[in-house]
Amino acid sequence: MYHFIVNPNSRSGLGLSLWAQIEPELQKRKIDYTVFFTQYQKHAWEYTEKLTSDHTYHTLVVLGGDGTVNEVINGIRDLSKVTLGYIPTGSSNDFARSFKIPSDPLKALEIILSPSDYSYMDVGCISYQNKKRRFAVSSGIGFDAGICHEAVVSRFKIWLNKIRLGKFTYSLIALHRLFLTIPADITLRLDRQNPVVFRKGWFVTVMNHPFEGGGLKFCPAAKPNDGYLDIIVVSGFSPLRLLSVLPFAFAGLHTRFRGIRTFRCKTAEITTTRTLPVHTDGEPIFLQRHLCVSMEKKRLKIIIS
């Protein structure tokens, strides 16, 4: 039994039209399946939590963007009892990019129905104010999270998605926010070692995959199944210098510049001098000053080919 979780509004309504291509194929092949359409924020989370509350094995298939994947992963009661398939229909699709899942929905469906390979993915987790949230791709605080917050309500995103250029959403919003953001001092403590302070920090992002924001290869060495979290810290830049450096991240060449540091760890504590926006897989979290980051003890089985 396959349980499809469909975000019909992903990429400004493209999700629903793609499901219309997929369902006839399922019926033609007489696949046993259920389908659930999300209607509001955290709806996929609620549904997945209810579905997996029986603690039996389930195969879930997400048709949506990275945000829908995030909601589903947060709703899973026991990560070890779920196999996850993915049909990417979002704006950035960094989860699919890392696993090389095809963007063609029927090709992605074929992989799910006739899998030949799996990956057991680490699942990241942030804790803040007695709350907890998982992430699949990345979680950040500062400038990159501010971009994610704005993307949720951005007219740029709606317009670009309609002309199938949604991957440029984050680049345009970054330009808009570049001169609005005031850097803050950031303290980073890795694996309970001595803390390190970064003056005029723009952002800290904890990566489980190499990519964020529609293909920015922030942590080129990150692997979603190596048991480690990779971290990028960007600090000490002027807005114009940051603007000139960020495009290098699409090729993973940004780490050569002074002011960009990367680390690898099992746990991290991040503290900032004032409250800043936070995201998990692009999904906004209200302003915070202190985050604890770790990995779940159990991994999630992903269909990759």
From TrEMBL:
Needed co-factor(s): Mg(2+)
Extent of the signal sequence: none
DAGKc domain span: 1-130
Keyword Metal-binding: no
Recorded superkingdom: Bacteria
Keywords for the protein's UniProt record, in alphabetical order: ATP-binding, Kinase, Lipid biosynthesis, Lipid metabolism, Nucleotide-binding, Phospholipid biosynthesis, Phospholipid metabolism, Transferase
SMART domains reported in the protein's UniProt record: DAGKc (SM00046)
GO molecular function: kinase activity
Entries under PANTHER family matching the protein: SPHINGOSINE KINASE, SPHINGOSINE KINASE RELATED PROTEIN
Family in the record: Belongs to the diacylglycerol/lipid kinase family.
Protein name (Swiss-Prot/TrEMBL): Diacylglycerol kinase family lipid kinase
Protein source organism: Sellimonas caecigallum
